[in-house]
Design brief:
By secondary structure, this protein is of the alpha/beta class. Helices cover 21% and strands 46% of the residues. It has a 6-stranded mixed barrel with strand order 8-9-11-12-13-10.
Length: 207
């Protein structure tokens, strides 16, 4: 109906309104103690309060914000910009993230993150990398993820590059296989022994 309006400014205004409504429709805010799993395309995802959000492999998100005491577990998916503030807890595994900005007392864990170009650290944020050969040259944080892929991330704080090196709140955990507890070996041997004993008894009864 409005397509036939004679003045183009009306058409532009209509297009803008439709764009705003479309953006609002694809945005979601999770509050209080609510929980939500996202596995589709969203323009904006906000987690507040004590809420918990899970991002799955099919998710494509323009901006994700985790605030206060909320948590977000990102396992797969594609996020253009990720922001953490307050006491947010964020875990990123096997995902594509363009930019990350964290501040306050947030906790950020990174493992096999592709396409990460910029990392901004403000405040007392704790950042854990699961990687090897990690080094910082004053501009770029480089290393090798657990899956063997290299990374080079421009890492800065509020004032710019970290001239004094990485803060103590940034830690690196080398990927390693979880060793089998010694008790597990004894348990397996005991099970084999009981199995053999049962067979002997069964054989004796048959004879």
């Amino acid at each position: 109906m409005f397509m036939f309006l004679p003045f183009s400014p009306y058409k532009f205004a209509l297009a803008f309104v439709l764009l705003v409504f479309a953006s609002m429709a694809s945005a979601v805010t999770v509050r209080f103690d609510d929980m939500l799993t996202i596995n589709d395309a969203r323009n904006r995802v906000v987690a507040k309060g004590n809420s918990q959000v899970w991002i799955e492999p099919l998710a494509v998100i323009n901006k994700a914000i985790v605030a206060r005491n909320a948590s977000m577990d990102i396992d797969g998916g594609d996020i253009e910009k990720l922001i953490g503030r307050g006491a947010a807890a964020i875990s990123v595994t096997n995902s594509s993230i363009g930019k990350i900005r964290v501040r306050g007392n947030s906790l950020l864990s990174l493992d096999n993150v592709s396409d990460l170009k910029r990392l901004v650290l403000i405040g007392n944020t704790q950042v854990n990398f699961r990687a090897t050969d990690v080094a910082y040259n004053g501009k770029f944080l480089t290393g090798v993820w657990a899956d063997g892929s290299d990374f080079s991330i421009r890492t800065v704080n509020r004032s710019g590059y970290l001239v004094n090196g990485l803060p103590a709140s940034v830690s690196v955990v080398a990927p390693s296989q979880v060793p089998l507890p010694p008790a597990a070996g004894f348990f397996a041997a005991a099970m084999v022994g009981l199995s053999l004993l049962g067979r002997k008894r069964a054989l004796g009864q048959t004879l």
